[in-house]
Amino acid sequence: KKKKPKLLNKFDKTIKAELDAAEKLRKKGKVEEALRAFEALVNQYPESPRARYGKAQSEDDLAEKMRSNEMLQKAINTYDEVVSLPNVPSDLIKLSLKREADRQQFLGRMRSSLITLQKLVHLFPSDTSLKNDLGVGYLLIGDNSNAKQVYEEVLRLAPDDGFAKVHYGFILKAENKIAESIPYLKEGLESGDPGTDDGRFYFHLGDALQRIGDKEAYKWYELGYQRGHFASVWQRSLYNVKGLKAQPWWTARETGYTELVKSLEKNWKLIRDEGLDVMDKKRSLFLPEDENLREKGDWSQFTLWQQGRKNENACKGVPKTCALLERFPEATGCRRGQIKYSVMLPGTHVWPHTGPTNCRLRMHLGLVIPKEGCRIRCAQENRTWEEGKVLIFDDSFEHEVWQDAESYRLIFIVDVWHPELTAQQRRTLPAI
Does the pTM of the predicted model rise above 0.90? Predict the structure, then answer.
């Protein structure tokens, strides 16, 4: 059973009744009244840590009610003031700084949050849960190296800490230390510790197991599905809208985007020729795939639209193709997708993987397709490309690609919004 935190110092115990009365208002949702009550207490007893903390909580509640970042900043400042007062109980220092760090993260102030978390670890060096939070703080600013050091320290102090294990495994996997990452991710998930039951860890453990050829991957995908993290064992995207029709392969008619498909197929030679021209003249515009999805080989892409934003410079190289696409906002406005050329050389294998979201469908237009040796699997079905024809699949389902032909394969990729998304959702869903 968790011990109740001690929030009152000697002085605050003498004004407990007044503090309780103000807190009761806050608990009842009378936020403005609670704030006035705590402000009065702070004015009367400026060195009362509990009154100051109550004021910060009330400002925090009011910020949520008003949806005001300005009020939230006030709360952050007040949480910080609590800590600088004399004789503050250590439990109250922890609560204040943890909440301050959390609210800073909410406002996107990751570096400020990191400083707050560092202060916590400095004040309470033996508390591994605070070190775990600091590790997350480093990960949020993309500083995997410092995060790794933090989790190594936690695991030295507490070798069975499941939270540290899953995060340490996650970092090892990001470093492409696939086999090393597996025991940490697995043991961390098996611990059942708070913060470990997260779709990302099931996703990365399964992916690591697949890459070493271990069929146990699907056991973890199944568990992730049962825990509600994945839509199914095969559909494992993590940024989803619930209730959208889900199937690996689609026909043009099912998408409703028949005009776009007709236009792509009718103009495929134009799209191909502009692509080949760019490939020959400006090979540097084709950038190697950088998401660590290849087991082996050479796979490069030339992107025209990314997250609904047009790359004007790229479109200068393929002006007719870009002009053709401008008529189709379901593609150019798809902020959760891309429009790009993709060239894959012989001897390339792309690991089984899933896209990040179920909010898009992916069209592949065949441009230069060798007679044999190229195939794509989505879920449990293999297909091949044809020159001048569009294949449509939902890349939130597991898919895998093999290029074992004698020559290169060139396709044109067009992502479109999932047809069941409303106009409002298309406008407001954050970009991916």
Answer: no
Q: How many residues does the chain have?
A: 432
H/E element holding 339? strand 338-344
Res 331: pLDDT: 98
Q: How confident is the model at residue 217 (pLDDT cuts 50, 70, 90)?
A: very high
Q: Which fold has domain 249-428?
A: Jelly Rolls (2.60.120)
Query: What's the pLDDT at 292?
Result: 85
Distance in angstroms (rounded) separating the CA atoms of residues 60 and 100:
10
User: What are 153-204's pLDDT values in tens digits?
Assistant: 999 999 999 999 999 999 999 999 999 999 999 999 999 999 999 999 999 9
Domain with CATH 2.60.120.330 in the chain: 249-428
| DSSP string of 120-159, one letter each residue | HHHH-TT-HHHHHHHHHHHHHTT-HHHHHHHHHHHHHH-T
**Helix residue spans in 16-161 (DSSP H):** 16-27, 31-44, 49-66, 69-84, 90-106, 110-123, 128-140, 144-157
- Residues 20 and 47 sit within 8 Å (Cβ to Cβ): no
Model confidence pLDDT, tens digit, residues 248-281? 999 999 999 999 999 999 999 999 999 999 987 6
pLDDT, mean of residues 402-413 = 97
Residue 43 burial (10 A CB sphere; 0-12, 13-18, 19+)? exposed
SS3 226: helix
127 in Cβ contact with 114 (< 8 Å): no
For the chain, residues classed under CATH 1.25.40.10 are 10-169+176-186
The sign of the torsion formed by the CA atoms of 348, 391, 361, 250 equals: negative
Q: Which amino acid is at 286?
A: F
Q: In whole angstroms, what is the distance from residue 322 CA to residue 412 CA? A: 12
Read off the amino acid at residue 179: A
**Domain formed by 10-169+176-186, architecture:** Alpha Horseshoe (1.25)
H or E stretch at 169: helix 162-174
Q: Is the dihedral of CA 126, 113, 34, 27 positive or negative?
A: negative
pLDDT for residue 1 is more than 60 = no
